Amino acid sequence: MFDEINRKKAALDTARPLPKYTLKSLREKMLLEWTYNSNAIEGNTLTINETKIVLEGITVGGKTMREHLEVINHRDAIQYVEDIVHKSDPLSEWQIKNLHRLVLKGIDDEYAGVYRDQQVFISGAQHTPPAHYLISENMTQMMSWYHDKGIKLHPIIRGAMLHAIFVGIHPFIDGNGRTSRLLLNLELMKDGFPPVVIKVKNRLAYYEALDISHTKEDYSDFIQLVAEEVEDSLDLYLNAINRNPETP
């Protein structure tokens, strides 16, 4: 299933370490596009250029404080993901709560990093998340799956399924989507893949694939969608390498 992706990943690994400034510019590009698209999927109205300006510390007129905080918080959450990858720390519920705390910081501090205490629904989805009193049990089951079966899977399958299972539980009042995409990339980046961007233009297919995974426990469509985004990111990195004469 992933033969071509594995081939491209091997080519990227062979080219490492990447030139310093090429790597820096790729990171900045991915941070911007990841932040813009992840927020836009959730309804943030900042354009990609406005998102770039906010990341540079400038306020955009006519936009809400929440929209500004969503950009800054997402940047900080990405930095936390990078820190986890750098330290090779195993995934834990504590990390997940910390990620969510960063996502919701200053937006809803009462519920930042705290499992919900009431029922929620996912707009447009057939799937209904579990009752709030089942969240701790479901999260424990998710972590058991991750450390037992999940850890043996290809990182694309593991990351996609972790994302889907987590967002199906919907453990937090708000910010589940952003947190789930951070978890997806955490798993990919641990295995040396570049981060992927779930594009806002693919939002409908993304939501439909997630709903199928929740209602039918069939993750194949969602895994395929993630795999396509993984290949896009690999192509971006490989094209940058091929244009750089300093790369062996």
From TrEMBL:
This is Fic family protein. The lineage of its organism: Bacteria, Bacillati, Bacillota, Bacilli, Bacillales. Coiled coil: none annotated. It comes from the Bacteria. It comes from Metabacillus endolithicus. Residues 91-228 form the Fido domain.
